[in-house]
């Protein structure tokens, strides 16, 4: 998975929620593009969640991305 691939999912219109799987096995759900922001250099993102928590993700540690066919993602693991 590359930083550019994540950027394409983020910029897709219409946007489809997706889940990033990280190298440590954690999953981070991106429910809406407004809930994700890129650092100035673009290597790190912050992803906000419904409960006001957030994850800081190094995009070089994203091993895969799941985009559900129906556009709905399961709750975060």
Word description of this protein:
The chain has 77 residues and is mainly β. The chain has a single domain, classed as SH3 type barrels (Roll). 12% of the residues lie in helices and 35% in strands. The strands form 2 sheets. A 3-stranded antiparallel sheet has the order 2-1-6, with no helix packed on it. Strands 3-4-5 form a 3-stranded antiparallel sheet, with no helix packed on it. A hairpin with a 5-residue loop joins strand 4 (44-48) and strand 5. The longest helix has 9 residues, at 3-11. The relative contact order is 0.29. The mean pLDDT is 91.
Write the layout of secondary structure elements.
Layout: H1 3-11, E1 18-22, E2 27-30, E3 36-38, E4 44-48, E5 54-58, E6 62-66
Antiparallel strand pairs: 1-2, 1-6, 3-4, 4-5
